[in-house]
Amino acid sequence: MAEKMALAKAINESLRKALESDPKVLVMGEDVGKLGGVFRVTDGLQKDFGESRVIDTPLAESGIVGTAIGLALRGYRPVVEIQFDGFVFPAYDQIVTQLAKMHARSLGKVKLPVVIRIPYGGGIGAVEHHSESPEALFAHVAGLKVVSPSNASDAYWMMQQAIQSDDPVIYFEPKRRYWDKAEVNTEAIPGPLHKARVVREGTDLTLVAYGPMVKLCQEVAAAAAEEGKSLEILDLRSVSPLDFDAIQTSVEKTRRLVVVHEAPVFFGSGAEIAARITERCFYHLEAPVLRVGGYHAPYPPARLEEEYLPDLDRVLDAVDRALAY
Amino acid sequence: MTVDSSAASKPRRSAAGKAGTTGTKRTTRTAAKKSTDPELVQLLTPEGKRVKNAEYDAYVAGITPDELRGLYRDMVLTRRFDAEATSLQRQGELGLWASLLGQEAAQIGSGRATREDDYVFPTYREHGVAWCRGVDPTNLLGMFRGVNNGGWDPNSNNFHLYTIVIGSQALHATGYAMGITKDGADSAVIAYFGDGASSQGDVSEAFNFSAVYNAPVVFFCQNNQWAISEPTEKQTRVPLYQRAQGFGFPGVRVDGNDVLACLAVTKWALERARAGEGPTLIEAYTYRMGAHTTSDDPTRYRHDDERAAWEAKDPILRLRRFLESANHADEGFFAELEAESEALGKRVREVVRAMPDPDDFAIFENAYADGHALVDEERAQFAAYQASFADAEGGK
Fold it and tell me: How far A73 CA lies from chain B's nearest CA (Å)?
């Protein structure tokens, strides 16, 4: 059934469906119960599925992820909410040293189907630690998968697939897009979780983005089109694994690549993309791969975030520079 | 002390609650004492004399001479295995070994208290508990030899993989116990850790989560007095078992070199867990007779006379004295065990020496359960790289 819904609502519906169809699925985190989470993503779930399946936890992120690991060892499939991007670090040890490695350490005997939901990114005028984009810190860790939907339909289906995955998945939710509505067909057959999607076809340059930056790239492409430039947009959807084949295919056509993310450029996912695409497409490239993203400085106070985050002009500037080669 | 079935559905939240029910002296005290105060549950003195204990005698009341000999055998064989592993490290067959020397009673007593359906979360030193769970001791050596990072199926014996990052497993145990409650099962979980781990946030978070959810988990802390070079005084201002009180569940200090006391107290705690009374903290007061690991040098931070004092409290010696004085074991038993012990050492030696290095491609195996495109790509690159040498060598 196709229905127009906000991205946050799509995740809610997806969690609801998972709770309905698999008694082993649990939702856990701070304030996910009665409150429905600070962004209301889990609204109504505790009421309908009870406190044993939609669990309000003590305020301790390492404890949340650590106990989720124990629940997964017992056969459950916990979907954990970390309230904000900047609050995940108390759990980073459990995620990196335990969650990511236990399957390998057990020589494949143990599976940890844990999903960790993290609302991430800026642009909402929040206080410190509420606007960060730490996806590269997780993509760097073998054993984890890292995804980020850009729209309601992907949010719905990628959550279904993340829950079904036998690997731990870090599911980054673009919080500034929570309220953006799109058509969600809950009976469609989704594509693979870790494949990129061409959002807009073009011939002059490829824009690669994921999560909150896909919408920006669409605005950039529209503006560039008015200037007679044809930009192709690729929504990566998955940061680990990364669909290099899709990027390669696009770049072999357009010969120019700009990567856009909110996270700092230094050691960001754009660096990995630039390196690999340079290796794969060396003779196709007409320009160096350019990156647009955050600076190597702590995320600024809200009054400065417009200057820090990639915006229409900064991406267009990079596009112009790439096209100037 | 027996569990009052009328209160079985309610967690006992405070020290006062238990005292009120039984009228016996509490093991959790409110007054802060020096952590070295020997305020502990003991059923066997270091001289091997059985002493009465109103609270815990019931948990070992039915123990047979055969079972007592079994505990002795477990400790002797565990110590023999441990000594063999230390030797194998010295011979270069293992990269490292973490010896349990001195902690046999704490591990065998608590390990033998568990039921088959219980689940155990060890640190990396629970060789005695592994023995009780039926894990082949040679399986423990793979990670110390460097051929794997675990290598046994945790679900075969309900014995989780060794955890090296200190204290992490306390949370896994708590989560697993929460799952048992959700399943409506009456199994229990036991989480092992040491005095050093008590400083980790994860251990405190595990205490708190388990209390909040009334999870059926027993926290078994072997206070062996040393976290590598740091004495317990560097970890805590209060005796560790007293930590439990602040989280709302009972804590007990037990003589960790007394296998009977460890068995009794752990049985009590596991029964509490099964009865829905929530978590318990057991502090087994013991001593790490050896180095932290084979890479450690205790002469830099502790005196031999401390070790000598603990030698007089040796867990194996004291049970032997008891068995002999009670005529529960004769020379034949000890001689037979000696032979069995040597056979175990020989088998361990042979298995380790024959343990093959893993295949090169094991690097990529099991990185993911559902696969990962980059791992596939890098495996193929690695294969091509390896093959490039084979081609060159084969072409000549």
Answer: 7
